[in-house]
Amino acid sequence: MLKKSIEDALNKQLNAELYSSYLYLSMSAYCETVPLKGFAKWLRMQAEEEKAHGMKFFDYLIEAGGTVKLVKIDAPKTEWKSVGDVFNQVYEHEKKVTALINGLMDLAIKEKDYATQNYLGWFVKEQVEEEANASEIQAQIKMMGDIVGHLFWLDHELGKRK
Ligand code: FEO
C-alpha cells in the first residue's frame, strides 16, 4: 500500500509525463508547418514515448495498491521561432523532468518506500538518455542551423527514427 504523499507525487508525475507528450506533439505540429518533416516525426515519436512514461506511472500506481487520479493537462504553447528554439526548449524541459524525478526519489527515500525507490531507478537512468538526446540535437542544430542544406540533412537523419 502506498503512502498518501507518494501516491499524490506519483499522480503528479503521471500528469507531468502526459504534459510532456502534449508539449512534444505541439512541437511536432509546428515542425510540420515549417515544414521540417523529419524533426516533426522525431518529436511525434517522442510524444509517444512520453505517453508510455505516463502509462508506466499509471501501471505502477495500480500495482502498488494506489489510486490513479487523472487531472487536467495544461495546454502547451503552439508557436516557436525556429527548430533551434524548439530543441532549446526540449532540452530545458528534459532538465526540468530530471529535477521532478529526483524530487520523487528524494521523497521515496524520506518515506522509506523501498519499492518506489527501486521503481524510480528506471526513470533516473532514462533521464540521462533523454537529456543526452535533446542536448545532442540542440548542439547539431547550433552547428548546422545557419546552413540550409545541412539543416535538411539533419531533418532527413531525424526522420529515420523508428
Ligand atoms: Fe518522460 Fe522525456 O521524460
At the fourth level of CATH, the homologous superfamily is Ferritin, core subunit, four-helix bundle
Query: Which ranges are low-confidence, i.e. pLDDT below 50, for 5 or more consecutive residues?
Result: none
Measured on Cα atoms, how large is the radius of gyration? 17 Å
User: Which small-molecule ligands are present, each listed once?
Assistant: MU-OXO-diiron
For the largest beta-sheet, the strand count, sense and barrel status come to: none
Instruction: Compute the number of structural domains.
Output: 1
Shape: elongated
Q: Can you name the CATH architecture?
A: Up-down Bundle
- Computed structural class: mainly alpha
Strand percentage lies at: under 5%
Structure description:
This protein has 162 residues and is mostly helical. The protein has a single domain, classed as Ferritin. Helices cover 78% and strands 0% of the residues. It is built from 5 helices and no strands. Helix 1 runs antiparallel to helix 2 and helix 2 packs parallel to helix 5. The longest helix is centred in the last third of the chain and has 31 residues. The model has no long low-confidence stretch (mean pLDDT 96). MU-OXO-diiron binds next to helix 1, helix 2 and helix 3.
Topology:
Layout: H1 4-33, H2 37-63, H3 83-110, H4 114-144, H5 148-158
Bound molecules: MU-OXO-diiron.
MU-OXO-diiron is lined by residues 17, 20, 50, 53, 94, 97, 130.
